Amino acid sequence: MRPMRLYLALRILAAASVLALGSCASRPPRFRPVQLAPNQAVIYVYRPRALLSPGPVEVYIDQTEAGKLSKNRYLCAIVGPGEHLVRVQRRSEVVRLVRIGPGETAYLEAGAALLGGSVSLASPDESIARERIAVARLSPAPAAARPDKPRE
Question: What 3 state SS string does 67-112 have?
């Protein structure tokens, strides 16, 4: 009789553990867009996870450095409505013209080839971009763009 009680107690403990772990399982993070003023727009540039990926790519918006992106990083640039040039470079470069209206959001996915160093810049579906940005980390702004750092 005693082994049966031990068996039942272990089964109950195992079932409780599975339920506890299932309820604590992390849900995928949700994308939280930045809040914009009525006369602003936002451009997100991200670089998804990649198994084999070269070093960071440099991102420029309207000829101003917006930051460097390693894999699984993103940057967020608040801009005015209108046309903006987004350039990504490493050993090569690619430029895209982004037309964006007030309150709108543009998503761009940057990529870099391991061999040859060529870069790419794609316009993904919004839902895919939001999922990938939600699990990525914000890339730090360049020193020249930080208000707390004096420009040299």
Answer: EEECCCEEEEEEECCEEEEEEEECCCEEEEEEEECCCCEEEEEEEE
Distance, CA of 48 to CA of 45 (rounded, Å): 10
- 126: closest CA among 71, 44, 61? 44
- At 84-107, the pLDDT tens digits run 999 999 989 999 999 999 999 999
For domain 41-145, which architecture applies?
A: Sandwich (2.60)
Does pTM surpass 0.70?
A: yes
- Looking up tokens 């895209």, which residue turns up? 96
43 alpha-carbon distance from chain centroid: 12
> From CA 63, how far away is CA 85, in angstroms rounded?
8
